[in-house]
Amino acid sequence: MSSRRSRSRQQTSSASRITEDQINDLVSKLQTLLPEAHIRSGDRVSAARVLQETCNYIRNLHREVDDLSERLSELLSTTDMSSAQAAIIRSLLM
Amino acid sequence: MDVRIAEMAKDRKRRRESEESEIRRSQSHWRTEREQKLYSSKLLEALRRVRGAESPATTRSRAVREAADRALAVAARGRTRWSRAILSSRAILLKARTRRPSNPDRVKRTGPAGPVFQKARVLGRLVPGCRSLSFSKLLEEASDYIAALEMQVRTMSVLTEMLAAPAPS
């Protein structure tokens, strides 16, 4: 019982203090997901910069989804869904 | 009987561990054609329901966005926090969301200081349900969220093209 308690205390103390190396490691992994136009992986980019670009990228993606949603809602009202749907479903199954 | 129960427990543990490791390399699963096709068909079903409901243009566009987000969250199969947050929240894009009460005493409510953690907090506000996550968990969720969003954009673009110019039947 007492050993379990002391073990969990150890775990929380080590988990709450993240090292700079761990930060850089995680951030560099995140960097690989960003579109190359923003950050060339050859350059030394700060972690803060990568996080900023990540935020920008997510906001851009949200905006794209918003625009597509608007376009889709327009199309939904004008399209004859049944024939278009048949075409889509056919292509989805192929 | 005991052997079977023990085996079931082992299976569950194995499945959970493989799911956890799958989250770590989850970006790849959002890129498969299978995932995109699955999402397309789910999205199409949801869009038919949106179309059925009569509504003005602005709310219909928001209804499409919410349907798309909900379908995306379902596609995540409960493995990520952002997807569970989307499914449990009723109105994701409620613009009139009430602001959190201000902090008159300026007591520091946030975690570690510094520009990196400051940006991380901004990121935490962008990924659904991830405001109070640890740094490493947040980045893990953000990575999966980005891959999912990219698939969402790809799929909705294809769907838009197809609906705009349907193939002759």
Automatic annotation (TrEMBL), chain A:
<dbReference type="GO" id="GO:0040008">
    <property type="term" value="P:regulation of growth"/>
</dbReference>
<dbReference type="InterPro" id="IPR036638">
    <property type="entry name" value="HLH_DNA-bd_sf"/>
</dbReference>
<dbReference type="Pfam" id="PF23174">
    <property type="entry name" value="bHLH_ILI"/>
</dbReference>
<dbReference type="InterPro" id="IPR011598">
    <property type="entry name" value="bHLH_dom"/>
</dbReference>
<comment type="similarity">
    <text>Belongs to the bHLH protein family.</text>
</comment>
<keyword id="KW-0804">Transcription</keyword>
<protein>
    <recommendedName>
        <fullName>BHLH domain-containing protein</fullName>
    </recommendedName>
</protein>
<feature type="domain" description="BHLH">
    <location>
        <begin position="7"/>
        <end position="61"/>
    </location>
</feature>
<keyword id="KW-0805">Transcription regulation</keyword>
<keyword id="KW-0341">Growth regulation</keyword>
<dbReference type="InterPro" id="IPR044293">
    <property type="entry name" value="PRE"/>
</dbReference>
<dbReference type="GO" id="GO:0046983">
    <property type="term" value="F:protein dimerization activity"/>
</dbReference>
<dbReference type="GO" id="GO:0006355">
    <property type="term" value="P:regulation of DNA-templated transcription"/>
</dbReference>
From TrEMBL, chain B:
<dbReference type="GO" id="GO:0046983">
    <property type="term" value="F:protein dimerization activity"/>
</dbReference>
<dbReference type="GO" id="GO:0005634">
    <property type="term" value="C:nucleus"/>
</dbReference>
<dbReference type="InterPro" id="IPR044549">
    <property type="entry name" value="bHLH_AtIBH1-like"/>
</dbReference>
<protein>
    <recommendedName>
        <fullName>IBH1-like N-terminal domain-containing protein</fullName>
    </recommendedName>
</protein>
<keyword id="KW-0805">Transcription regulation</keyword>
<feature type="region of interest" description="Disordered">
    <location>
        <begin position="1"/>
        <end position="34"/>
    </location>
</feature>
<dbReference type="Pfam" id="PF26576">
    <property type="entry name" value="IBH1_N"/>
</dbReference>
<keyword id="KW-0539">Nucleus</keyword>
<dbReference type="GO" id="GO:0006355">
    <property type="term" value="P:regulation of DNA-templated transcription"/>
</dbReference>
<dbReference type="InterPro" id="IPR036638">
    <property type="entry name" value="HLH_DNA-bd_sf"/>
</dbReference>
<dbReference type="InterPro" id="IPR044660">
    <property type="entry name" value="IBH1-like"/>
</dbReference>
<dbReference type="InterPro" id="IPR059002">
    <property type="entry name" value="IBH1_N"/>
</dbReference>
<feature type="domain" description="IBH1-like N-terminal">
    <location>
        <begin position="36"/>
        <end position="89"/>
    </location>
</feature>
<keyword id="KW-0804">Transcription</keyword>
<dbReference type="GO" id="GO:0000976">
    <property type="term" value="F:transcription cis-regulatory region binding"/>
</dbReference>
<comment type="similarity">
    <text>Belongs to the bHLH protein family.</text>
</comment>
